[in-house]
């Protein structure tokens, strides 16, 4: 599903965000990307949705070379790769329902699909009862669930979560992680960038450890630290 | 359908969320368009005045008394073939004398011409020009004919180089000056629209970011802003056209009085054309300015 071959990303000031990365993530995988701040986790995520291009090497998502996509094809890539962030990125003037429906509306779906798919996604994250609330009326966990619903409503093949629990308390963190596991179980490839050692150690899933832009460890049932 | 609805509501929100900025830019655009319309009217009036003056430019060639009729006719038909010439009239010695008598009638200081006994006036060709700027060329060509038995000396070819030059200078200054003013106005109006839309883009940057993340096309991201720019243009056009309508009555009558000596005509459909021009100009400016703003943002 995701293949990185010999990928490096160097910024104009000369520093490397990623260096000589070889990584393969199969369809249906659940992968933790771990490492301290600045290790290159977010850069890796941005390469997958072509928010940035690799300096050298090849990034392929669902069989497509991301760097070779024309600008007009980038939206199609992004419909395949859902992404959620630490700061949720919800629109404060829209309700939960409107925030989720927004993704379908601006990608040109008809009114009936918008209603049905929005309800399905909200049911999946357990937010149907809160659908008419505004983000400021929700807890942090509920806001992140709204963001996850907005990503899932497009039925993406891949869900990328960039520090999804960074702003949440431990109980809510588990809520979100359980939700991400459920999303994975229904067939979505899930990448979680985190530096929360507790959840990584408890779940024993595949762990890719980045340090100063290099993969220093890639284990099937890994722990946060070697 | 949902997309159309989205574009419409998003454009409307852009305008209604920032009414002060929208009003300010609409008024600026309206003012620019009013200037534009004023310039078009003035330019059209002056152009038609200049065209009228140009049509009055003519050359006169005095013919030698002993010129053969066949040679004169041959010269006349050769001049008529020149594309810059609209008409050539032959004035015989008798015609010239008649004309002189009519002019001098009742003017005692000139006295009766019969006293001279012979007709001193030469026959002539009067050449009306379609293109005044060719006056000098034709005059030069005719002077080359001197000594061939039709034209006696170079002074017999009469043109008015100063008048022609002055007319041409006026026309040139008008069109260059007009273009410069138009370009300047276009720049100012575009600048205002670009900045209005840039503020709207900035206010909705989070929405744009999310649209791009979920895979909305650039076209759909841009559409509400382009529509907003066009609406600002249309509002401006409507205001300026209303102002023009109110002012057109008194202004036209003043203008006609002022230009009384020159029968300036603007044409029956002129105001319809002007309204269409102003509206088209406004739409183009609105869409263009908005596209510049949103494209700059998306390219970041």
How many helical elements of chain A? Answer: 7
Tell me, rounded to a whole number, the average pLDDT of chain B: 82
Name the helicity range of chain A.
25-40%
Largest interface, chains and sizes:
A-B, 26 and 18 residues
Largest sheet of chain B: 4 strands, antiparallel
Provide a descriptive summary of the structure in words.
The complex is a heterodimer of chains A (226) and B (300). Chain A is α/β, with parallel strands linked by helices and 226 residues long. Helix content of chain A is 33%, strand content 27%. The mean pLDDT of chain A is 93. Chain A has a six-stranded mixed β-sheet, sandwiched between helices. Chain A has seven helices and ten strands. With 300 residues, chain B is of the alpha+beta class. Chain B has nine helices and four strands. A four-stranded antiparallel β-sheet of chain B has the order 2-3-1-4, with helices on both faces. In chain B, helix 8 runs antiparallel to helix 9. The longest helix of chain B is centred in the middle third of the chain and has 43 residues. Chain B is elongated. Chain B starts with a helix and ends with a helix. The mean pLDDT of chain B is 82. Chains A and B meet through helix 2 and helix 3 of A and helix 1, helix 7 and helix 8 of B.
List keywords for this structure.
heterodimer, A: 226 residues, alpha/beta, 4-stranded antiparallel β-sheet, 7 helices, 10 strands, B: 300 residues, alpha+beta, 9 helices
Topology:
The complex is a heterodimer of chains A (226) and B (300).
Chain A: E1 2-10, E2 16-25, E3 30-34, H1 41-48, E4 56-61, E5 64-65, H2 74-80, E6 81-85, H3 96-105, H4 111-124, H5 140-152, E7 158-162, H6 170-185, E8 189-194, H7 197-203, E9 206-211, E10 214-219
Parallel strand pairs in A: 3-8, 3-9, 6-7, 7-8
Antiparallel strand pairs in A: 1-2, 1-4, 4-5, 9-10
Chain B: H1 2-17, H2 19-56, E1 58-62, H3 69-81, E2 85-91, H4 93-104, E3 124-129, H5 135-143, E4 157-158, H6 161-203, H7 205-214, H8 218-258, H9 270-299
Antiparallel strand pairs in B: 1-3, 1-4, 2-3
